[in-house]
Amino acid sequence: MRTVFFDVDTQIDFMFPSGSLYVQGAEKLLPTIAALNRYAASSNTQLVSTMDAHTENDPEFRNWPAHCVAGTVGQQKPAITLLANRMVIPPEDFAECIDGIPQLLLEKRHNDAFTNLNLEGLLLAFDAERFVVYGVVTEICVKFAAFGLLDRGKQVTIVTDAVRSLDDNQANQMFAEFTSRGGTLTNSETILHGPLQ
Prior knowledge:
Layout: E1 3-8, H1 12-15, H2 30-42, E2 46-52, E3 86-89, E4 103-108, H3 118-126, E5 130-136, H4 138-151, E6 155-164, H5 168-180, E7 184-186, H6 188-193
């Protein structure tokens, strides 16, 4: 079964205490995120890393502090989560060849990764049945990615020790809805040391 890993929004502004929209404890996920990303590369599994890429006066900043403004340090991913061979997929029309690029950095202006219209074409190109999802924030951007994939008929697994929430109650409600819709939960140990199904 062909699998794709989805590393959601693990960016400096979210992952480090100095970030403008820090998620409490997110930095503790970085070794696990890095291990999952390296495992994807070593097992020839496509890795999609979603990234907020906001404009300076983004409407989202009416509800949240300014964060992940395109081109700033805070918008970048920590080096430990990056593969050597990678390509940025902007929110605008994109027609470059992705063959042989193990990490695709999918930029987005909104919470939902599917607002980057290139993602639909990528899913067709991947022709994958199973998606392994992790990152931040569980009940917001991870939810949009996981539910969006479920809506498209994919098998979706969330790695529970590689996500972090802002509100644990909302995250637990999200997990309950996710599993009721056929999604599955696992942990990084199972992914990293078990057979990749």
